[in-house]
Design a protein that fits this description.
This protein has about 290 residues and is mainly alpha-helical. Helix content is about 65%, strand content about 0%. It has 14 helices and no strands.
């Protein structure tokens, strides 16, 4: 006799994925970086950072997808024309970082962790690739569309879409209809209950990798704000690397005011104040 499915475990993989990631989705929306973003509080620095991370992530994701394009555990979800983001992100990188963007873009720790996980899945456990594709592409086709408009407004970008190509899917006329098609393809994948369970776990992992990335980027931005505070000792500053060796410091945003000599040297300020007081008293005594 067939045992009924418990309420908490939907039959369709698409439903099960949505259910399994409900909690982590809320967590992702509530990450400080994302909360600020939704309020329109996104700086050029923050946006450039997250876009560079997304570039690295999609290069890895799509490389693994290409590796598995004919593998039945992934093939029904292969929609390069509609979904793939690498070319769009390359245009965004050139917009934000200039012609030599390849050498200029940062590569943060949390981004590396995400990339390593994608490579491990693509090469050793391709049956889990669906979890990563679901997390990113369906997310981009949902909340991503709102984020695009917020970024355009906050960063005063042209409505032509420059700088936010990543969020634009020219080969998808209706995101809602495409998501329906994608869900039905996910539901067509053959998998054992054991694999299915691992796919659900991997989707949660994918969300957590995104959350960790937001937390790291927020920390970098806060660190940067502290760097501008006069009380911050130079030795305490922490930077993220750019390029393979983690050695090049991140660029300073254009137009950021430099700290004045006075605000950097409290001792000098004291000496000047004291000299002024002594001079005032001396002039006072002289006049008397
Ligand atoms: C500001 C942050 C975010 C907002 C406002 C947001 C908003 C939304 C909305 C409105 C939907 C559509 C829900 C529906 O159609 O039922 C959605 C779906 C989705 N989001 Fe997000 N989201 C955010 C962040 C994220 C992040 C960081 C990820 C993962 C990296 C993500 C992954 C997804 C996925 C996979 C879906 C599809 C769920 C499904 O239909 O199975 N979202 N999001």
């Amino acid at each position: 006799m067939e045992r009924p499915q418990p309420d908490s475990m939907p039959q369709d993989l698409s439903e099960a994925l949505k259910e399994a990631t409900k909690e982590v989705h809320v967590q992702a929306e509530n990450a400080e970086f994302m909360k600020n973003f939704q309020k329109g509080q996104v700086t050029q620095k923050g946006f450039k950072l997250v876009m560079a991370s997304l570039y690295r992530i999609y290069v890895a994701l799509e490389e693994e997808i290409e590796r598995n394009r004919d593998n039945p555990v992934y093939a029904p979800l292969y929609f390069p024309e509609e979904l793939h983001r690498k070319a769009a992100l390359e245009r965004d990188m050139a917009f934000w970082y200039g012609a030599r963007w390849q050498e200029a873009i940062p590569y943060t720790q949390a981004t590396r962790r995400y990339v390593r996980r994608l490579q491990d899945v693509g090469r050793r456990q391709p049956e889990l690739l669906v979890a990563h594709a679901y997390t990113r592409y369906l997310g981009d086709l949902s909340g991503g569309q709102v984020l695009k408009k917020i970024a355009q407004k906050a960063l005063a970008l042209p409505s032509s879409g420059e700088g936010v190509d990543f969020f634009t899917f020219p080969n998808i006329a209706s995101p809602t209809k495409f998501k329906q098609l994608y869900r039905s393809r996910m539901n067509s994948l053959e998998m054992t209950p054991e694999v299915r369970q691992r796919v659900l776990e991997e989707a949660k992992t994918a969300f957590l990798l995104n959350i960790q990335l937001f937390e790291e980027l927020q920390e970098l931005l806060s660190q940067d704000a502290e760097d501008q505070s006069p009380s911050q000792a130079p030795g305490l500053r922490r930077r993220v690397g750019s390029g393979a060796q983690d050695s090049t410091p991140m660029e300073t945003p254009r137009g950021k005011p430099q700290l004045s000599l006075l605000s950097q040297a409290p001792l000098l300020r004291w000496v000047l104040t004291l000299s002024f007081l002594v001079a005032t008293v001396a002039v006072g005594l002289y006049v008397m």
